[in-house]
Amino acid sequence: MHRKIITCIVISSLVFISSCDHLKFNKVENVFRYNEIGDVTSLDPASARSFENIWIDDQIYNGLVQMDSAFKICPSIAKAWEITDDGKHYIFHLRNDVYFQDDSVFPGGKGRKVVASDFVHSFFRLFDARISDATTLLTDVDRVFSGTFQGFQAPNDSTFVIYLKRPYAPFMNILTMKYFSVVPFEAIDKYGQDFGEHPVGTGPFRLKKWDHGNRIILSRNDHYFEKDADGNSLPYLDGVMVSCIKDMETSFLEFVDGNLDMVSGFNAINPRQVFTSNSELRQEFRDKFYLQRMSFIKTDYLGFMIDPKRMDEKVPIYMKTLRQAINYAINREELVRFLRYGVGIPATKGFVPPFLPGNKDPYMDGYTYDPDRATELLAQAGFPNGKGLPDISLFVTSETGPVAAAIQSQLARVGIKLNIHTEQPAVLAECVVSGQCYFFKKSWVGDYPDAENFLSLFYTKNFSPEGVNYFHYSDPRFDSLYEHSITETNDTIRYAEYRTMDRMITEAAPVVPLFYDEVIRLVNKHVTGLPIDSRNSLDLRKVKKS
């Protein structure tokens, strides 16, 4: 397969060398190299919705707090914080040694110190739906609280305060999201809505060059504030090189040839080639690479649009017994074992991934493979052995093709005929949001490690297209429990309420949970210090190359 012409970086001199046939890098360069198959659309943290954007934003920006691999909230620019007893006021105390990256927007091009008012300006931007994907995350901010600017306050340069209308238990988790990074008002004033093309942050790396469609190059921020346990300045790397090869096979070949340091994601690692039949790394790959693998805050599922106002009566998925029958008819273990080479965990414990804090309930039962029970439920629904049941259409993208075909075969065994419609991702997304797809394949990646983020998909006030309740599932009991849980500050009570809601969703069956995904990466053995976590973040601060 012909490979694209890629421009390479030798970081010691920052000279870019063109290669006509393939990526040809200096093997001793202190640059971390990975490929991004998806499109990076903006480097403005206010638009940090996709992993493509977030992974680069992770290198450029910092927020008040950050999260470690154990889901613990840790200091970042805020060195300490308090929450008032009523759970509505968050007071953050900032470090005084954090500076924005050098940029022409500052006098003399020298980055200035970050102060509390910078967070006021940065967070206020997030209310603007024209630039921000985080507007719904701020609905509990008390924008009319006396003496504040839209619910935010900077009483001095080192103190930043957020005022909420009511207690919101997941709020500290939300603040770890990249949306809530600090940005300088000078850059916003100069670049406006084009700030995403000219990012200025406080992170370990800064944007050096963005050649759209070819590469993104980041260079070390020599004024980064964090140090390692021995007092050494971070980061260790001199730079980051992100290539933009769209073909997965070509990207994987570049990795095997040593021109990339990491490939990430089930499809990107080429599982047919790298795994044995029992999901172990083949010996020829073990010699040069190591495998990183961890539970992912992500549930892949089939969803039903069950709003009676939008329901086509000829498609009887409004019947709960039919939806339950479909759940029982699918062999999740078989899908994971044979189509995903063992990557993923069969989703038999409800919609919420069972490893989230407070969700480890050994008695939580979802759906297991039980074709006899599926047959019974079909008969109860009035379709014995599928007789009289109209064909059901499942809308998917091409990437889901093999899984969809397997599900089609499994449902046929109990008499359910499934038609598969393959759409482009953007077309399917619009179809789902608009409520025109009655049965569809999607996945949900948790924005933060709290079950509330998954349960919000079933809250009535989150009906699509305005919200993420694509199913139009509605239950006043669920809504009441959901509203109480997010204000409950006692974790034991809140987690118990989460589990109750997950059981309600399981029983109502507006979804068919398929599997809880895993973060999976192949990494060159020359790379050390690369952490992995269940949020699939990319932390390059302590990465070294030999």
Write up what this structure looks like:
By secondary structure, the protein is an alpha+beta fold. 24% of the residues lie in helices and 21% in strands. It is built from 15 helices and 21 strands. Strands 13, 14, 15, 18 and 19 form a 5-stranded antiparallel sheet that branches. Strands 3-12-11-10 form a 4-stranded mixed sheet, with no helix packed on it. Helix 8 packs antiparallel against helix 10 and helix 14 packs antiparallel against helix 15. The chain is globular. The two termini are 30 Å apart.
Which structural traits does this protein have?
about 550 residues; alpha+beta; five-stranded antiparallel beta sheet; four-stranded mixed beta sheet; about 25% helix; disordered N terminus
User: Number of helical segments?
Assistant: 15
Task: Give the helix proportion (percent range).
Answer: 10-25%
Quaternary assembly: single chain
Major pleated sheet: 5 strands, antiparallel
- In terms of structural class, how would the helical and strand content be classed? alpha+beta
Instruction: Give the termini distance in whole angstroms.
Output: 30 Å
Beta-strand residue fraction? 15-25%
Question: Using only CA atoms, what is the Rg?
Answer: 25 Å
Q: What do the pLDDT scores average to?
A: 91
Q: Let me know the number of strands.
A: 21
The coarse overall form would be: globular
Low-confidence stretches: 1-28
